């Protein structure tokens, strides 16, 4: 089937959906956009129009379309569950933007549906796993080159938040990425989460406690601290320093060109995660399409189990945020189907 193009149905034609449509069309090979669904039909038509794809307001029409081989879900997390369940029932491969679903109960229903189907069909769009620097950090840790991991120090900074962004979203929309990368880098589950906050930045919108410091305890005994600062003002920045028994490694340390000109020196920083992680998204999509051609998911990608585990950690994170105490992560037993 490799010689034929994978016919992709896109669900959700907003900021990420439009970017992924372009990616499928221009930046990866072996796939093309076949259909686009968005309840905002104008938006669906706008995205589909440029690529010769058909547009509809009904996502289930795309899921049921026999002229669609694979799906990209880029609608808000709150609507992912029914879409995923329908896609699993049809047996079609899916790349679902994070989060798998917004809460662990619904994520577990997706895990159970996929396990019952007996095929790995869904991968979750935790794109950092495909970033070159994160991949090198993972290699160093897996090869034992830093010794046994003890701590991760992470910083996740956004320039500014869109209207309506809440403190809870700092956990389940933003820190969800660190929950996934910590589990992936350390090959360990998250056991407990606590959240503290310094005084609120004067740049934070009313009602938003920004920044916050989230601490994760893992089942392997490592500690992970995450500074989440979503109105830092200066740009988009994601850093991670791993501390092992025999060494440390830092990624996200602005290794780009150092420019000297007209009385100044320094680099530049974008405020858009699509710049920082553009190459990672491209790699994620190429590997997903290649795997889908072969009727499987990409082994580097986050599985539905990983999506569920991240949702469980988010639930503990929001609880810790609300109560001011450490919250344990309530995780179901992992089915053998998801043994890495
Ligand atoms: N991996 C990453 O770094 C990022 C991932 N995301 C994720 O991508 C997803 C989409 O986010 P954005 O594009 O920023 O949101 P957005 O609000 O720009 O776009 C969402 C689109 O989905 C449509 N939609 C709503 N319900 C739908 C349904 N039932 N069926 C089909 N379409 C529906 C909306 O009309 C809208 O056009 C979310 O899950 C979000 O968490 C967002 C930003 C970055
Ligand atoms: O997923 C993302 C956004 O939804 C989220 O709001 C940002 O904080 C993250 O940095 C970005 O990667």
From TrEMBL:
Gfo/Idh/MocA-like oxidoreductase N-terminal domain location = 6-126
Cite the EC number: 1.1.1.18
Highest taxon above the source species: Bacteria
- Please state what class of enzyme this protein is: oxidoreductase
Catalysed reactions listed for this entry: myo-inositol + NAD(+) = scyllo-inosose + NADH + H(+)
Print the keywords alphabetically. Answer: NAD, Oxidoreductase
The record's section on Pfam families has:
GFO_IDH_MocA, GFO_IDH_MocA_C3
Q: Where is the GFO/IDH/MocA-like oxidoreductase domain?
A: 134-249
Task: Indicate whether Transferase appears among the record's keywords.
Answer: no
Subunit comment: Homotetramer.
This chain's function reads: Involved in the oxidation of myo-inositol (MI) to 2-keto-myo-inositol (2KMI or 2-inosose).
**Which family is annotated?**
Belongs to the Gfo/Idh/MocA family.
HAMAP family, from UniProt?
IolG
Can you say what this protein is called?
Inositol 2-dehydrogenase
Q: Which organism is it from?
A: Saccharopolyspora mangrovi
Q: Which gene encodes it?
A: iolG
């Amino acid at each position: 089937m490799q010689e034929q193009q994978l016919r992709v149905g896109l669900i959700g034609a907003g900021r990420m959906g439009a970017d992924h449509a372009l990616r499928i069309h221009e930046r990866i090979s072996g796939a093309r956009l076949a259909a686009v669904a968005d309840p905002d039909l104008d938006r669906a038509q706008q995205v589909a129009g440029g690529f010769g794809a058909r547009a509809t307001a009904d996502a289930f029409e795309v899921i049921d379309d026999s002229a669609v081989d694979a799906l990209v879900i880029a609608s808000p997390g709150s609507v992912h569950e029914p879409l995923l369940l329908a896609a699993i029932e049809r047996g079609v491969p899916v790349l679902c933007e994070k989060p798998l679903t917004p809460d662990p109960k619904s994520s577990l229903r997706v895990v159970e549906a996929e396990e019952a189907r007996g095929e790995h069909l869904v991968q979750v769009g935790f794109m950092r796993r495909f970033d070159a620097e994160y991949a090198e950090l993972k290699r160093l840790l897996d090869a034992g080159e830093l010794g046994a991991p003890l701590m991760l120090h992470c910083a996740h900074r956004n320039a500014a938040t869109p209207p309506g962004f809440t403190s809870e979203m700092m956990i389940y929309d933003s820190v969800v990425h660190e929950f996934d990368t910590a589990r992936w880098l350390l090959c360990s589950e998250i056991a407990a989460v606590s959240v503290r906050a310094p005084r609120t930045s004067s740049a934070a919108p009313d009602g938003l406690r920004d920044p916050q410091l989230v601490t994760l305890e893992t089942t392997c005994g490592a500690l992970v601290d995450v500074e989440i600062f979503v109105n830092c003002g200066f740009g988009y920045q994601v850093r991670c320093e791993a501390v092992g028994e025999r060494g440390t490694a830092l990624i996200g340390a602005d290794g780009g060109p150092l420019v000297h000109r007209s009385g100044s020196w320094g680099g530049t920083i974008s405020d858009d995660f699509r710049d920082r992680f553009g190459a990672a998204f491209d790699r994620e999509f190429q590997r997903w399409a290649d795997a889908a051609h072969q009727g499987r998911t990409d082994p580097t990608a986050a599985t539905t189990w990983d999506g569920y585990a991240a949702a469980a950690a988010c639930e503990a994170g929001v609880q810790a945020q609300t109560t001011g105490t450490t919250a344990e992560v309530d995780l179901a037993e992992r089915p053998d189907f998801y043994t890495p």
